[in-house]
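Session log. Operator J.P. requested a structure for one protein chain; no other inputs attached. Running the standard single-chain path with token output.
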Amino acid sequence: MDNAYKMIVDLAKEIEPPADGTLSRTVFQDERLKAVLFGFAAGQELSEHTASTPAIMHFLLGEADVMLGGDAVVAKGGTWIHMPAKMSHSIRAKTAVVMLLMLLK
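Structure written below.
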């Protein structure tokens, strides 16, 4: 039995949003999950796109405008969003943002 685990004590501190631009860092990956931490500077965006697998966006810090299909929502620290595969979505950071993206394989 494999008892290996990964623990991050303060996920929001694992990435610093840049002064300008977007950073991403994979914090975990196995055969069922890929977890990527994003740091967005205020005003940065990911244009509309889709993912081939279901995904979860968990906003840890900041505020962003998010498009989910045809719905516009505001995501703040603590917001959790599950998206089915192939759902179009985009993100525009209103402030510096830290977000965990989990791609479910």
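Operator note: The chain has one domain: 27-104.
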